[in-house]
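Task: complex structure prediction.
Instruction: return structure tokens for all chains below.
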Amino acid sequence: MTVTSTAASPEAARFEVSLELIGLNRRFGSVIALDSLTFSVPPGEVFGFLGPNGAGKTTTMRAIFGVVALESGEVRWRGEPVTEEDRHRFGYMPEERGLYPGMQILEQLEYLGRLHDMTAAAARDAARNWIKRLGLEGRESAKLEALSHGNQQRVQLAAALMHDPELLVLDEPFAGLDPGGVDDMTEILAERARAGVTVLFSSHQLDLVEHICEAVAIIHRGRVVAQGAVADLERGDRPRLDVRVAGDAAGDWARQLDPGVASVERADSGMVLLTLAPDADSQKVLDAARAAGAVEHFSFASRRLSEVFRDVTGEDA
Amino acid sequence: MNKRWIRLTAIVAEREIRQRGRSRAFMVSTIVLLLVVAAGVTIPAILAHSAKPQRVGIVGGQLAAMTEIVREAGHLTGTGVTVVPQPSLASAEAALRSGRLDVVLADDSEVVVKQVSVTGSSGSGGGLASAIADVAGLSKLLGHLPPGAADRGVTLPVRGLSPPSASLSRRLTGLFTVVLVWILISAYGSQIAMGVGEEKSNRIVEVILASVRPIQLLVGKVTGIGILALAQAALMVAAFLGLGAAVGSSLVHGAAPGIVITGAVFLILGYAFYCTAYAAAGSLVSRQSDVGAVILPVQVPLIIAYALSYTVIYADGANVFYRVLGFLPPTAPIAMPVLYAAGDVPGWQAAISAVLVAAGTVWMARTAATIYGRSILRTGSRVRLRQVLARGEAA
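Output:
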């Protein structure tokens, strides 16, 4: 599907941080869902909110919309505590998808648009536009339940985008999508972000979405355990190197390196993963490798986000 | 409650009206209810018209003149009359009590019936009795006074052998009100509970709650469906009055403005009281199939009041228990229209009851909104009422 930009708000870009979550706390019975959860999201980027199932992602997103009450903490929008009026300019696609199965899709989208302060006429126009863009033209008066699963998902996305929101919050938008659907969704998120919209989406599949987002917050048991630009997280605070020297399956050459230069993390059939010491020069490692034999592979290693998660929590995502 | 609050609530209400108003279920139920009303009004009227003529006893006076008066009164009221001369007032009264006579015109001086109705106009042979009283009074006056003096009209006194009570037709109008309140609350109440359960089970509610508060969704839903319910009720009342007047049904004679207004007030109050409760009940379940179990406790007071109403309608006066029900918010919407229509309570007591129900409705709406707001996003097993009402357990 092709989506042309309609630009949410040209001024959005002047806010460095648009959405801030500050010290959110919430428990359900004895379960702590959110534990002083804090992070912020800049406009104009696709921001991933990642963590395993049950980490508190859905509760956080519901808290942004005021659907879940907080024990303490604050949701701020453009520097001010979020208001009902702000929320009418947010778009939400909940994890549990749901629309009226027996309602015609045009009417349904129009209704949801009006609930976001659109006039009936504007909502109808927007609904028609989205139906067209999503390739559902001619099916305006079809009931939702008559559509295929994939098309129902498209209508659900349209419901979140109808009123051209300034903040788009999508809970597990990639769950249950086929590869084509993933590409379409990725394109729409990127396109919205380019238009200046603040885009926040969640996923429990860290590695599947790492190439989609520019920045992430990773949460575990209601706390943010890592956050920042994806490129920075993948590099880590200390660069790592993958090096292979011909004829040295055990990677013995690397174990003789000065700990002030680099230390071995693991060696796996000749490929050695090294972590550089602070301020160490990677070329010294290359020199040592060449001295040991023919260097077949030498590159900076990037960590996958699931490894970042494992490193900080000691658990698998 | 600002303008936006009202506008969003109205949008929710509008959707309910549109979606439900054009559904087949609504059309079919409207037609069926209209047919029931039509049958209920016309069949008794047709039977009444084919009933045997009224037997009128005459005591004393001039037989020919008095027979003429009775014939004229029968003509005026469209009732067939048979004149039966009686030897004495005592034997005429005995015949009245045994039912061999319906009305007695005595000595040009009074009209006697078995029982005078409270409204004084209807009841068995009531229309005829008052017409006889009018005509006989007029003719007596014309015999004694100069022409023109009778323009003010004069009526002989109508005496009842037993103490007056509300007429059966008044009671039947009360019954009509009760049946209407009962049908509308139970039909639309379960529709509301089902609708809420549906929104919860198909998860649309989370999308909507992102821009609308639970109380707005609740009020919008109950109002929208309520407007439909009232439109249907108004249609039925119109059919009742229109058809009743057309066929001359005695049911309609009882539809005094007071009874209609009381019925309408308690219909609206009862609807609001119960339907917010139904909505709260519907929010407790995750599957629509569980709705039946949660709305049963809501229905119980309604069922009790409804069942007991029949004893009041067909008995002479309500017992104390039923009078108490007339003032309790859950049962008053059914019990009070009956008590008022049967003439068992005066208007000011009905007004007090209405205020009590209104207060109960406000309380119920707030409680329902709390239950609704706290349980609508909890899925899985049925939510326990105790859980959602416990403090700090909101979810």
